[in-house]
Amino acid sequence: SLLRRGLELLEPPGRAKVPPGLQRGRTGPRAAGAARRRKRAPEPGRNKATVKGRVVKSAIEEYHKKKPVNHLRENLQYMLKGRLVADKAVTEQVLAQNRGRKSKDQPPEKTEKKKPKGTVFTEEDFRKFEREYFGVP
């Protein structure tokens, strides 16, 4: 019925529509069963048993179609295109939220290395001190 409605929509506007009761002349309960039992006439389409009209597919072309494609270059360009770097504090916060609460999940705390303090005195000051204290000329 859907196909019939679709065909009615597609038919040219000049043709008059046939009322549904007079469509094919079939009436009664046996008409539907007879139509089902009637064998379909072979359609004048292509005979599948013959080779005529068949397009030979190249095995090489089929292989190239199914060959995996390397998308590395496009992916790299996509990744490098948006160089939006998040703030250091935000990234630390996100990493802290994704970390577990156990001590084994926590990263080791970084201890700041103490720089050895240099002397305030220069070599000249030491020589001057030696002369004054020890009396060395």
TrEMBL record:
Signal peptide (residue range): none
Biased composition annotated in UniProt, kind: Low complexity: 24-34
Domain of life: Eukaryota
GO molecular function: enzyme binding
InterPro entries in the cross-refs: AROS
Keywords from the UniProt entry: Nucleus
Official protein name in the record: Active regulator of SIRT1
Source organism of the structure: Sinosuthora webbiana
Encoding gene, per UniProt annotation: Rps19bp1
